[in-house]
Design brief:
The protein has one domain. The chain contains five helices and no strands. Helix 1 packs antiparallel against helix 2 and helix 1 crosses helix 3.
Length: about 100
């Protein structure tokens, strides 16, 4: 699996987890589905491809201002919980390994 595909899986997990804990619905809401699609689109066209860093460390900000704020909320909520939810992926992400 490519680094981009792993990133897509991770961001999908994070948004879905955030949605279930914060939007109190049994299924993922439309706005979170849209955010997942948006994140996947941006990852698919990342100019750094397999050499990309985490988006936080990136010199290019490809998310629109409103989507950047939405993803910040997700990351702020889920990020600290990742060590318990996905420990291996968390450690790889912190050390920027694929």
């Amino acid at each position: 699996m490519s680094k981009i595909e792993k990133e897509k899986d991770t961001v999908t997990f994070m948004i879905e987890y955030y949605c279930t804990k914060n939007h109190n619905q049994e299924v993922i809401c439309k706005s979170c589905i849209d955010l997942i699609k948006y994140a996947h689109e941006k990852l698919s066209v990342c100019p750094f491809g397999e050499k990309k860093t985490s988006c936080l460390r990136c010199k290019i900000h490809c998310y629109s201002k409103d989507k950047r704020e939405e993803i910040r909320k997700v990351m702020s909520y889920v990020g600290p919980r990742m060590i318990y939810l996905m420990p291996i992926q968390y450690v790889k992400h912190i050390f920027n390994k694929s």
